[in-house]
Design a protein that fits this description.
Tetracycline Repressor, domain 2; mainly alpha; homodimer; DNA-binding; 199 residues
Chain lengths: 199, 199
DNA sequence: CATCTTATGACACTCTGTGTCATTATGTAA
DNA sequence: TTACATAATGACACAGAGTGTCATAAGATG
């Protein structure tokens, strides 16, 4: 039931000719060359040889062109929570679960240097940084469910999942700001500021 | 050197006739009555009897009409860090400092029910919720400085201040969603998910 | 009163994001 | 092959956010 490359629901109709990944990559190039706010959606559409409206069909907003590529990471991280389901877990396991989920996202990134560029762009623009709250919402909800399944109260689970997302996002930002190849140590260190409250 | 009510830099010139607080209050009423996105800046300006451009002079964005009122809270919270300056503090004191700062903001709120309405409006609109990152930025920076002053590494201080802001914001959101008069217990509980890493 | 300073608003503009609708291209059934 | 259904595309129009420019209004000061 997970999202695959297969497309069974395809009875007929005109096939798509636009490659979203290519368009997003092109947009990132334009952002890098002319700056984020100096590049309009019309500029991107023209460069991609498509209409502005078509561009909006694949990317709901300009920010989505930057944040969209992080979806698989969030998804992989979300799936990793599955390994920690079930009853009878101690406190240490909860933190380990969060750690596993945070690290799992790293594995599915094909090119870390692209991600670094993306995150640096995000760091430079408050408009994009703010989007983290929305873009990470699925992951926050998944973490919330995981914590509740492991015995935390609804209230404590919300506090902890909020802190968890903020800390891991900060870890990614710190990694992106530097030149270390591996983001994992940053994620591990970030989780040290978390505490699982007694139940 | 802190911001006061005094306005020494006032040589001459036409005095202002617009009361920002009144305009913001009016805007909140309109948002409550017709909905946030159904109320345009032009609507607000017309209702306030001023020009749209004048409205933008007092509020840089539509979101500022909602978030602007939280500035004194952030400021008071920021000032509270002052009591914890100086060397020779143990780990427990660091968390106590964060707790004091978080609670200090509550005291300066004249009408908690207004704040609750504001936060509920924020919770309902992702566009407004996202703004928390920007609106809380001064507080985050102040917390960061406090943590560094108290011996944390730059890296750990960034992780902890990020988690601190996220947890306290979540505390305010949870308080706003319910009907408890006092937000302090929520703030205290939220800080229990934090851990000061060893130095 | 003359003048300086600042607030205000009228106007025009760019850009984001959305809705509508005709057109195009493809797969499938007759 | 010929309809026909289905879906993609883009042309067009539109509301609204946010910005820049500039003329004007209204006090304060000399």
């Amino acid at each position: 039931m997970t999202s695959e490359d297969a497309k069974p629901p395809r009875p007929s109709g005109r096939p798509a000719t636009i490659d979203p990944d290519a368009v997003a990559g092109l947009a990132l190039d334009l952002f890098a060359e002319h700056g984020y706010e100096n590049t309009s959606m019309e500029d991107i559409a023209r460069a991609a040889g498509i209409g502005r409206k078509s561009l909006y069909r694949y990317f709901a907003s300009k920010a989505d062109l930057v944040w969209g590529g992080t979806e698989p990471v969030v998804e992989a991280s979300t799936l990793a929570f599955g390994s920690f389901h079930g009853p009878g877990k101690s406190d240490g396991d909860v933190l380990a679960g969060l750690r596993t989920a945070a690290v799992a996202g790293v594995a599915v990134i094909p090119d870390l240097s692209v991600t670094r560029g993306r995150l640096r762009l995000i760091a430079e623009h408050a408009e994009l940084t703010s989007r983290s709250y929305e873009s990470l919402a699925p992951q926050r909800e998944r973490a919330l469910a995981f914590l509740i399944e492991n015995g935390l109260s609804d209230s404590a689970a919300r506090f902890l999942s909020a802190a968890y997302l903020a800390a891991t996002f900060e870890a990614w930002m710190q990694w992106a700001a530097g030149s270390d190849p591996d983001p994992v140590p940053y994620l591990i260190a970030a989780l040290e500021v978390l505490n699982v409250p007694p139940r």
